């Protein structure tokens, strides 16, 4: 009986391993032609990369968004690169179209991408599930185009969205997020490592993580700030 149970266990383990490795082969994320994400600010090498996985229809992402830009502005691109990755959940009805739209805006004028995100967050409640429950996709597209019209040509944008532009890019970004074990928004990586940060974090909360990575002593920084009113940043 013991041998039979052991054999059954071995068979089950072999079957599980076959399924597991088959899934690994089938689940290869398409390799994009450039690093994924929407980088904030000017180009250049950074000592630290902060990847923020957000959703434009997520209220917690909306709360975190201004602080993330504040963090990036505080440190400057030489010290920290903020990279926004959109991760639209299936239970937020307008999330996918909002993600597609971001790729379209980026393609039309990359200089206004973060202005577009801020504008969308400002009217985010219009795109929640309840207000859009009885609206068609076409109606939601038109609503999104109204927002996009603040930064790009509305007619051109809407035409691109109706033609499903940005869909392939959104799929790759979503699959990439899943491969990084993202399960919601906002979530964060600092130099590729998961950070259990909260959407309510302030600049000071982020400093407590970032400063030591840059070689800034937190105690010295606080003392210097109190005495001079200036923050301590490595040159």
- The number of helical segments is 10
Q: What general outline do the C-alpha atoms trace?
A: globular
| Strand residue content | 5-15%
Mean pLDDT: 86
Strand numbers in spatial order across the main sheet: 1-3-2-4-5
Question: Which class best fits the helix and strand makeup?
Answer: alpha+beta
Q: Calculate Rg over CA atoms.
A: 22 Å
Low-confidence stretches: 19-25, 220-235
Query: How far is the first residue's CA from the last residue's CA?
Result: 71 Å
DSSP strand count: 5
The level of helicity is: 40-55%
N-to-C SSE string, H for helix and E for strand = HEEHEHHHHHHEEHH
For the report, how would you describe the main beta sheet?
5 strands, mixed
Topology:
Layout: H1 2-26, E1 38-39, E2 48-54, H2 59-75, E3 80-86, H3 95-108, H4 113-122, H5 129-132, H6 137-148, H7 154-162, H8 167-179, E4 187-190, E5 193-195, H9 203-213, H10 218-228
Parallel strand pairs: 2-3
Antiparallel strand pairs: 1-3, 2-4, 4-5
Helix pairs in contact: 3-6, 6-7
What does this structure look like?
This protein is an alpha+beta fold. Helix content is 54%, strand content 10%. The chain is globular and about 55 Å long. The N and C termini lie far apart (71 Å). The model is unreliable at 19-25 and 220-235 (pLDDT under 50). The protein has ten helices and five strands, in the order αββαβααααααββαα. 32% of the residues are buried. It has helices spanning 2-26, 59-75, 95-108, 113-122, 129-132, 137-148, 154-162, 167-179, 203-213, 218-228; strands spanning 38-39, 48-54, 80-86, 187-190, 193-195. The chain has a five-stranded mixed beta sheet with strand order 1-3-2-4-5, with helices on both faces. Helix 3 (95-108) packs parallel to helix 6 (137-148) and helix 6 packs antiparallel against helix 7.
